[in-house]
Amino acid sequence: MIAVLALVVGIILGLVLQPTIPAGLQPYLPIAVVAALDAVFGASRALLDGIFNDRVFVISFIGNVLVAALVVFLGDQLGVGAQLSTGVVVVFSIRIFANAAAIRRHLFHG
Amino acid sequence: MTTPVVDEPDASLSLLERLVDDALDPGYQETADRGEKRTVDWRHSVAFALAIGITAALATAAVLQVRAGAPSAGQTRADLIDRIVQANGEVAALDARQGNLARRAEGLRTAALNGTSANRALAEEVATLDVEVGVAPMSGPGVEVTLSDGPPAPAGNDGPDLARVLDTDVQLVVNGLFASGAEAVAVNGQRITALSPIRSAGEAVLVGFRPLTPPYVVTAVGPADMADAFESSSTRTELNQLEAAYGMGVEVTAQDDVTVPGRGDLQLRYVMKEKAP
Prior knowledge:
The structure holds two protein chains of two kinds. By secondary structure, chain A is mainly α. Chain A has helices at 2-17, 29-49, 54-78, 81-108. Chain A is built from four helices and no strands. Chain B contains nine helices and eight strands. In chain B, β4 and β5 (204-207) form a beta hairpin. In chain B, the strands form two sheets. Chain B has a five-stranded antiparallel β-sheet. A three-stranded antiparallel β-sheet of chain B has the order 4-5-6, covered by helices on one side.
């Protein structure tokens, strides 16, 4: 319930404020979004598993975003930014799918 | 329900399997196993809501960014097309103004060269020269030759598109028409004068420095038997070969009355003072 509310508020904030991302940070924005999504899906699953822990969640959320951005930044400096971006997106996507599947099982099997 | 931790060494070797099995941050399970607080208080909800809000705002910003950047290529193209259309309109307006001024100058000249027989002779000479130089429009019986591109080369063929009408093909027709007795020739409304190059720039054919688009219609005013002369000329034989070899479209029709426009933008390049009588 509160999650849905936060989702709506976040989208509205993004639409209203139209934050302009500095050009230097633009390549990392999609990666950061995917990393954050992964943390949110993980937290949702932990909540349903009954093992949610706010400390773990905040650390995984910030850590995910920062590490993903750092990996892509390093890749950019090394000239393999696009490949590393793909790697990061693939890993997070697989985790998101796995967590989404677990959440689905929770919701349908009570 | 908790994800079973896979301990078998074989299974843990599989990268993908580990990825799926560890999909949930291991930290959750570890803290739970250590028996840390599992109470659900308001701070959990706030942290969770905050994270979802930030994620949603980030995602929205990213989407907006992509959507703002994506149409820029199409926007540039549309802007360029707009500018081309506008510039073409300006050229057409200037052309019309130039034509009006030329007609006015002609009228004034005719008025000025009225009276004495010497003046009339001069006026006649000017009229004859106007036709020969290509300033005055001409109409009368003539021939119309239409050149159109052949079927395009099949995709993947890197070579030059040989079925395309080239500048040399247009030159061939223009020269052939003059050889067949044409007095005035125009390509797509561009009068051919002694100073009208027919050349190509990139894929476009330029006549008198104006880019033309196919099909190329070559209009010629000349004697009534010009069509027959052209049909039996060596030019026509060459065109037949182009037709047969590349599928280029060549159509020659005799016309009872065609009009070839004049070329107004001739510049005065050389003036000689006449010896005093």
